[in-house]
Amino acid sequence: MAKALSHHDLSKLIGSIYDCALDPGRWEQALAGIRDALDAQTAVLQLDDLANDQLLIYRTVGIEPYWLEQQAKYIPEIHARLLEDLSTWPSLDMPHVVSRHIPQTYLETSRYFQEFLKPQGLVDVMSFFLIHTPTRLAGFAVARHKRQGIITEREIKLGRLLQPHVRRSVIISNMLDIGTVERAGMAEALDALTCAVVLTNERGAVLHANRSAKHMLRSGGPIQDVRGILQAKIPSASRELHSAIMLAAQDEVSIGKTGLAVLLSESGLPPVFARVLPMAGGDLRAGMEPAAVAAVFIGNAPDEHDAAGMLARAFGLTLAETRVLASLVAGHTLAETAASLHIANATAKTHLDNIFQKTGASRQADLMRLVMQIVPPAGQPGP
């Protein structure tokens, strides 16, 4: 039985995960830490092309080269099974565990389990979903050997604790897409991005704003510099931003989902979100200049149809509910949504109430937050 992970070891592991946001070449090291913490044989981080049954990104530890070559032939089966399960999955925050969610009758006839997992002595797989759109599925997974036994509540609990940190790192890395960031060149690297980035200290004081952020601050955008302190125009957004920054300064382990998707835009405007990346920990981030405890990344919402399609799959929304959600994600009011879809306001309200009930959200801002927790933003590097 695996021993409990100390707070020091957990902090070190999460620090290594966040370093990967700025240097994707560190993922193998972080995956090895995740594998060991979850007492597993293998660990993978992957981005799947669902339309063409291909792996776009596939980082692994613990899998022998021969089996890596064999994996490709089983991808269609893996995708088909995961998508079938995801169609009724209660939440993307819930891990998929083979021993708990796959019937034994399926395992007995599955080529993937009989020809790939079983010969390696692997008896259980736990997968965590990070991003799901109609064409993309990103996640990380660990597999356990028969000597380690099947996944227990300990591994599920620890994996769920790690999940928001991995998701934050993957999403921010997707925004950056600039390769390794040199220690001395953080400010210069950030200036090359089209998405706005602000570096702050533990009080939220602005230490550096890249060109996009400076333009946003000058033009009366959703963020402002109030006597040197980063603020959002919406008070609730400012509170969450500063809460995440304080957690990043004190102990990045506890930041969890706080600051993962802070809605900055007002109702009726296209959604704009902020994400807080802790900067004080890890081997890479702690040595960067200017020294900062947090980097606040600001970007737009994803394509509304991809976002609505993702939520529809995750929560079983009807076609009518998905159309209403897509309009809301695009920044339209409920009244505008009803008019554009040629339905009564009461009908649109009924669809929205159903969406709330299925997703567990209680207001439109919660829906936007849910979308941004699992769908990457559209920000891309500048020229």
Structural commentary:
- With 383 residues, this protein is of the alpha+beta class.
- 45% of the residues lie in helices and 19% in strands.
- It has three domains: 7-173, Beta-Lactamase; 193-300, Beta-Lactamase; 304-374, Orthogonal Bundle (Arc Repressor Mutant, subunit A), CATH 1.10.10.10.
- It has helices at residues 7-22, 27-37, 65-71, 75-86, 98-101, 104-109, 111-117, 153-176, 186-191, 211-218, 235-250, 304-315, 319-329, 334-341, 345-359, 364-374, and strands spanning 42-49, 54-61, 96-97, 122-132, 136-145, 196-200, 206-209, 223-226, 229-232, 262-263, 272-278, 294-300.
- A hairpin with a 3-residue loop joins strand 4 and strand 5 (136-145).
- The model is unreliable at 177-184 and 376-383 (pLDDT under 50).
What is shown here, in short?
The chain is of the alpha+beta class and 383 residues long. Helices cover 45% and strands 19% of the residues. The strands form three sheets. The protein has a five-stranded antiparallel sheet with strand order 2-1-5-4-3. Strands 7-6-12-11-10 form a five-stranded antiparallel sheet.
- End-to-end CA span: 51 Å
Percentage of β-strand residues = 15-25%
Any idea what the shape is?
globular
Q: Helicity range of the residues?
A: 40-55%
Map the helices and strands.
Elements: H1 7-22, H2 27-37, E1 42-49, E2 54-61, H3 65-71, H4 75-86, E3 96-97, H5 98-101, H6 104-109, H7 111-117, E4 122-132, E5 136-145, H8 153-176, H9 186-191, E6 196-200, E7 206-209, H10 211-218, E8 223-226, E9 229-232, H11 235-250, E10 262-263, E11 272-278, E12 294-300, H12 304-315, H13 319-329, H14 334-341, H15 345-359, H16 364-374
Antiparallel strand pairs: 1-2, 1-5, 3-4, 4-5, 6-7, 6-12, 8-9, 10-11, 11-12
